[in-house]
Amino acid sequence: MAGPAFRAAAVRVRTPATSANLGPGFDALGLSLGLYDDVVVRVAESGLHIDIAGEGADTLPRDETHLLVRSLRTTFDLLGGQPRGLELVCANRIPHGRGLGSSAAAICAGIMAARAVTIGGAERLDDTAMLELATEIEGHPDNVAACLLGGFTLAWMDAGAARAIRMDPADSIVPVVFVPSRPVSTETARGLLPRTVPHVDAAVNAGRAALLVEAMTRRPELLLAATEDRLHQEYRTPAMPESLALMQRLRADGIAAVVSGAGPTVLALVEDSAADKVARLAGEGWAANRLALDAGGTSVLPLA
User: Fold this and answer.
1) Which of 119, 122, 56, 133 is nearest to 93 (CA)?
2) Which of 276, 284, 269 is nearest to 23 (CA)?
3) From CA 142, how far away is CA 161, in angstroms rounded?
4) Is residue 86 very low, low, confident or very high in pLDDT (cuts 50, 70, 90)?
5) Of 166, 163, 116, 162, nearest in space to 294 by CA
6) Checking DSSP bridges between strand 85-92 and strand 47-54, what pairing results, if any?
7) What count of Cα atoms within 13 Å lies in the side-chain half-sphere of residue 181?
8) What is the pTM of this model?
9) How confident is the model at residue 187 (pLDDT cuts 50, 70, 90)?
10) Cβ within 8 Å of residue 186, ≥6 positions away
């Protein structure tokens, strides 16, 4: 069987930052944020060339071990074969190791770019298959679902296959992220979680996760109660004590604050009128940013 044909023109893919868990929605709920990485991918005659600007420019590998390249390669294999060469230009704005979905962004960019430069790629790899592949690479579906679909997502596994639904968050919700200077690896944060939790804590989280869907989409005034968590955040305190202290201080002031993903970034979900004031509450050692909600997810954009 003949291998795939590739487009001569380069493609540009934009991927949003994401926040997963959102308090009680552990490994299930995600939110797409208006902070983006861009990558331009062109099929070349030979070799691999990677240019990186922005986040990770001094630390990311420029070879086959780069997560973006691994995602491209895995997708090309699924689509029928590898191109002779690749040229990548990455403009990274999503902080690494901060719980804002930088790995999901790289994975989704690689999958989408490989599909876009392969002639007939969309027919061979539909959106459902992209989610399944991204989940296989990432290991869990919450961040990649939000990154691919945009908006507010609920993801789950069904007989080993990733599934997700997208919902529109209420327009009045504004995400404010508090990003510390020091990263924490997802592996470290996950390693602190216990193998079992008390039944009462699981019951509270189930109710809060269900309430969070209503709060995020229709009744933002319920966000403080809806973002209560007993499954993962407190257990991660040894790895990020400053993050948990900030989260608790914000919540004591009535602000719906959570650890973003595996941390250490703290995410506050606030009304538009309060966003600027909340962004000033963190103090020294934090980069506070008011972000937009992203509705589009991973997308192919014009080069110009």
Assistant:
1) 56
2) 269
3) 13
4) very high
5) 166
6) parallel
7) 4
8) 0.96
9) confident
10) 99, 103, 261, 262
